[in-house]
Amino acid sequence: MIHPHGGRLVDRTASGDDRERLAKEAAQMVQIPLNQRELADLEMIASGAMSPLEGFMAEPDYRSVVDSMRLVNGLVWSIPVVLSAKTEEHENLSPGSQVALVDEVGHALAVLDLESCYRVDHDYEAQLVLRTTDDKHPGVQYLKSIRPVYLGGKIHVLRRPEHRDFTRYRLEPKETRVLFSAKGWNRIAAFQTRNPIHRAHEYLQKCALELTDGLLIHPLVGETKSDDIPADVRMRCYEILIENYYPRDRAVLSVFPAAMRYAGPREAIFHALVRKNYGCTHFIVGRDHAGVGDYYGTYDAHAIFGEFDPAEIAITPLFFDHAFYCRRCGNMASMKTCPHGKEDHVFLSGTKVREMLSHGELPPAEFTRPEVAQTLADAARQDAKA
Amino acid sequence: MANDPAEMVTLKIPRPLYTRLKQLIDGTGFRSVTEFATYVLRDLVAHPGKAPDEEQRKEAQPLTETELSAIRQRLRELGYL
Predict the structure, then answer these.
(1) ipTM of the complex
(2) Which domains does chain A have, with CATH numbers?
(3) What is the pTM of this model?
């Protein structure tokens, strides 16, 4: 089984007397409400999905990650995982104190041992992490919505954020690792998505499955931008697709609770490292991974892996070109495997697909499976009625 | 950038050691002795006081039988096993 990033799976869950004591003390601490991204990050830190992180980043790690895509200890890490101050009071907290991290109804989810409280430059962070400071970029919009003061330190998790959705699909890293082991899988390819799976994605996954023992379809179900297809609709698509088109003993569906950063290349590295923590040995990287609009080059998310020694990433990236159905080849193909021109390729833009669905029109079967198209069309119809 | 020559320095090691390391990495994912040495030293720095050996590579907190059983049971109930 592939080792977690940093060598061990972190578990920040408090238990026994410690948990009881902290829960009592938390009631008297300064309370910091977590936004959706921070809730997701807390959950992933707690479960070890973000190993080796043991809390929200203190200043040295934050600056090192922004500047060099490494933690201070040298381990590769490409995305800041931070907790923002929510009030002026929070901005003046002293290192050495403890604060309670609470959800939207005030439940104390964790206690943070404050190591540093530090002011940041969001433009600088955006330029390096997101490669843009354009206000239209959703990641930049997120940064503009939070205070430029972060609080960092280890966390002791008292309870996990509550979920009512996808409860049968919420597996943590230690669970996926046991699952893969029980199935006798040594090589597992992970597929990350925030979109429905169309024929092109299915093709990439099945190519990966030819090289491995099993496939983890790991859709992100944390916060996404408002015009992304909602997670519940996507999950129905994934279920129906897997039921009809994937071998049951080779493909596993489980949800990835992360929030989307839309950080393109840097997020591709982050996604790969986290899937390594889930026990995957291979990670599918398609065109414009974690991208949005045209902020990133189509294959920038491939190129960034070349900035690191493969042994440091350890999970093997599987790079795929733009894929499509070719009428002349008579099968799914990519720019690498098909000699024919665009006129022979069935490809639809996301905009075109949304337009078709909103008019009750199903995209062709060469682009998406009819069952998936029907699910999306039904959802679009419901949306229009609402 | 990791491979920018301006950001690299030269360390000297005895030739027999270099030769031994070259044999050691043959057939692994390491492309050079430099890559391997960098990896090992980073690991050492990340875990001061502990030599990077087989034990270091193992997960520090393997699951107990009870935990393993509970996870398998949950996976069965969810239909994964």
Answers:
(1) 0.85
(2) 16-157 (3.10.400.10), 167-385 (3.40.50.620)
(3) 0.86
